[in-house]
Amino acid sequence: MTILIEQPALELQVEGNNVHAEETNELVLEGGFPLPKDGYMAPEINSFGHSFREYDAESERQKGVEEFYRLQHINQTYDFVKRMREEYGKLDKAEMGIWECCELLNELVDESDPDLDEPQIQHLLQSAETIRKDYPNEDWLHLTALIHDLGKILALPSFGELPQWAVVGDTFPLGCAFDESNVHHKYFKDNPDYKCPAYSTKNGIYTEGCGLDNIVMSWGHDDYMYMVAKANGTTLPSAGLFIIRYHSFYPLHKEGAYTHFMNEEDVENLKWLKIFNKSKVLVDVEKVKPYYVSLIEKYFPAKVRW
Ligand SMILES: [Fe+2]
Ligand SMILES: [Fe+2]
């Protein structure tokens, strides 16, 4: 792998404070509240087909999850996402193959990551092998499952070491009203966008049926991997890209919110997203690797810009 730059000069701005992540390694919210870059627990945040979506249930993890969503809801603004998309749209962080990235992600050891009760590569391959059993002929779906979480490399130092709230968790649109079905909705009241009249109506800056492609989504591993796949000219079908981009968009595919923005293609693609699932069977990486390497060669260039 070629890491092209060690650390992107990433500016994370919170309400007018420029905070250089590479200098401080922590973000300071308005009022001087520090956000440790990796100190807070955000367990079981991203709940893609996993077993922990009982947000109201009593559990010791609940406080951590709630704190995670408080930070996410305050900091994910329309302007923040625009800056992130611009920065990561450069694709100047690294050049490496898709399998290489699977192995790289495997090095990511972060106790607060929801999928890390197992090595990341197990999560990727389990997702892929599960869907392969159900849909043996849809090879694009197998590869989509394999790569759906690769964007989590955003948490690695070479990729900006973004805080948890900018990498994982349920996603939602910016530029329009925050739907009530968003988990821990109350914390949006402290989001600067909440008071912006243009963003406060049901459609906000968008029109009904405009297509999810035209919606600015909160920033995280989903949107990043979508950008990488698209910009590198993957031949995965649009349903594959849709799954990658919206797999954490639970308000849509679990709660049925924001569906008024969908166009016909979105409606078709959403069917595929809904069949995505996960199993806990242990996968023999070396045994299945050749199959996935062949799919990577079919759908991606050998070297991918990240
Ligand atoms: Fe994910
Ligand atoms: Fe996942």
Structural features, described:
The chain has 306 residues and is mainly α. It has one domain (21-305). It is 37% helix and 8% strand. The protein contains eleven helices and nine strands. The chain has helices at residues 21-24, 62-75, 78-89, 98-106, 120-134, 139-147, 221-231, 238-246, 250-253, 264-274, 285-299, and strands at 2-3, 11-14, 17-20, 26-28, 34-36, 94-96, 173-174, 216-217, 304-305. The longest helix is centred in the middle third of the chain and has 15 residues, at 120-134. The chain is globular, with a radius of gyration of 18 Å. The chain starts with a strand and ends with a strand. Mean pLDDT is 83; it is low at 5-44. The structure holds fe (ii) ion (FE2) (2 copies). Its EC number is 1.13.99.1. Keywords: Ascorbate biosynthesis, Cytoplasm, Iron, Metal-binding, Oxidoreductase. It is found in: Cytoplasm. InterPro entries: Inositol_oxygenase (IPR007828).
Key terms for this structure?
306 residues; mainly alpha; three-stranded antiparallel beta sheet; two-stranded antiparallel sheet; 11 helices; 9 strands; 37% helix; globular; binds fe (ii) ion; ascorbate biosynthesis
Average per-residue pLDDT, rounded, comes to: 83
> Which molecules are bound besides the chains?
fe (ii) ion
**Total count of helical runs of at least 4 residues:** 11
| Class computed from helices, strands and strand pairing | mainly alpha
- Report the biggest beta sheet as strand number plus sense, adding barrel if it closes: 3 strands, antiparallel
- Name the overall outline: globular
Beta-strand content: 5-15%
Order of helices and strands: EEEHEEHHEHHHEEHHHHHE
What is the strand tally?
Answer: 9
